[in-house]
């Protein structure tokens, strides 16, 4: 028996299965966001997720993968691999390039889903399609090339981001922040004096199920990033992922009990997600204790970030920036503090966190990379939306927003109790 062929086959199965787990996270995003928004906008959430998967996959195939993983040019962009053609010999893996593309495609779909929540209930569907093309074809692939591709300049400086706290979550979170600021708050979200009004979620049980699906998919997100079924760190990665998520959720339960005298369900949901986001960069490189600490800090930081955005009249209906932007930043920097040298042996020498005798070099590289990809996401998103707004309106009309995007944009309600509205409209026409 050819052991190398057997290992390659096992690795292929592992990567395909974990890619499928990551793609299932889109169901989690759909349920989470549909549960957090009002029921009149649930269908619009589902339609945006379908845009993420369909347009995202196609654009990443035609353009994004080549820019991200193609043959390096000056450490900035890839120049081959468009439609999986050209020179890809520099990708030296035990799996095929097709398998690798599938796994990376699942990642890019997750990135655009981060932004969709921040602009929920008011972005125009046409504009969202165009922005999805920009994110999956340009914004994310170029940032990813800098960190993950052979020759990328941030990776060459020493930045490490195992499964994407910076490249996916911080970059996506700051992109979401730019989009939320650009499009403005929902009608009625803030009073004339600037105080935020509560917009009750339509279905918290649905949002909870979405969070659990995301939690499940995250094991594929993190453990699958080994790209090998025989990698001995898979178990450790899964454990740190679980502990950080648990710490984020548990901390939010206790913190909101103390702060509000009641455990806040949306905060607890997002606290667990914040823990998952924060451990994504260092899941393979930090100890179990560090994972708990990172998750706990992220859970508390998420609460303060959510309150801060409200104080600045920035409307982020699902907490995309607080969960992904803030927690992704914490997780990226935490690698520079807690990376253990014995856990980073597989990626080269000198990767030790500040608390393990590594000095400031790794932390500096992490901080630089974090700032670069976050600013890149924010600025490119702002420019993209500015250009898109010249072609089609980025925001729906006032009437469409008040009626709800389900009926106003897609012509169909999400729930049966809305049928009375449809029957009334039919009677008017008759």
TrEMBL record:
The chain crosses the membrane at residues 12-37, 49-69, 100-120, 127-148, 160-183, 204-221, 233-255, 291-309, 321-339, 359-385. Pfam families: Ammonium_transp. It is found in: Cell membrane; Membrane. Keywords: Ammonia transport, Membrane, Transmembrane, Transmembrane helix, Transport. InterPro entries: Ammonium/urea_transptr (IPR029020), Ammonium_transpt (IPR001905), Ammonium_transpt_CS (IPR018047), NH4_transpt_AmtB-like_dom (IPR024041), RhesusRHD (IPR002229). Residues 14-415 form the Ammonium transporter AmtB-like domain. It is a multi-pass membrane protein. Belongs to the ammonia transporter channel (TC 1.A.11.2) family. This is Ammonium transporter. The lineage of its organism: Bacteria, Bacillati, Bacillota, Bacilli, Bacillales.
